[in-house]
Amino acid sequence: xxxxxxxxxxxxxxxxxxxxxxxxxxxxxxxxxxxxxxxxxxxxxxxxxxxxxxxxxxxxxxxxxxxxxxxxxxxxxxxxxxxxxxxxxxxxxxxxxxxxxxxxxxxxxxxxxxxxxxxxxxxxxxxxxxxxxxxxxxxxxxxxxxxxxxxxxxxxxxxxxxxxxxxxxxxxxxxxxxxxxxxxxxxxxxxxxxxxxxxxxxxxxxxxxxxxxxxxxxxxxxxxxxxxxxxxxxxxxxxxxxxxxxxxxxxxxxxxxxxxxxxxxxxxxxxxxxxxxxxxxxxxxxxxxxxxxxxxxxxxx
Length: 301
Hints:
This protein is α+β, with helices and mostly antiparallel strands. About 35% of the residues lie in helices and about 30% in strands. It is built from ten helices and twelve strands. The chain has helices spanning about 15-20, 30-40, 80-90, 105-115, 140-145, 155-170, 180-195, 235-250, 265-275, 295; strands at about 5-10, 50-55, 60-70, 70-75, 95-100, 120-130, 150, 195-200, 205-215, 220-225, 255-260, 275-290.
């Protein structure tokens, strides 16, 4: 007889058990691990907080789904997926604004939600990459001193917000609105405060930026790499990402993770040139408007 799992909402006392489950799967678990490290397992709606539903077998976590402050459902649930996402949503009380995780898990939950295509802001399966930081290849534009990188400072806010809005339009299907600019400002301010954004300069002028979406003592996840369109194909995005990873390596971090679009061949080539290896698929599905409780009543198991 197969033992039925115990499904429960995680509490602060469960942090060690969650880490034990996530660390061997770190390449596709960075959001879950990083958010838990940053904000713990309480959920009061603050940035990085979420409601975590986990399945336990013989006292060990075997799957987890989190529903975060920003309405995103994030998965690391190879088993018991349906029960877990439903439990997380029920307890959090939030609408569903996105599905993020390993490709086959996002596929399964999308099917269960029966989402109207008109709600889909972005649906992209991305190539997942990892890099052992002791194998990082230094880009020539950085090694030569032609470009210099530094951590972003408060005085960089104006152009970084503009770049963040442009990044959202190009890569996430967002519209340039007052709300999107306010979200971009909030995100950039937080990343500057946490010292998780880098700026690349040539002759004192900013030409590219890169951030860590998530950072733990074991690994960092690169994201938000942006070069204005009129100065692309000069190696600037690759250089600023490398500079951030050099600093992470100096601080003892061993691994970097990132994902990029299946069709984004220039980015794939740039990351391969830094030493990144393709290891799988990661899917991001964003909804606008989000699915509320009335919509969820129509879902199927």
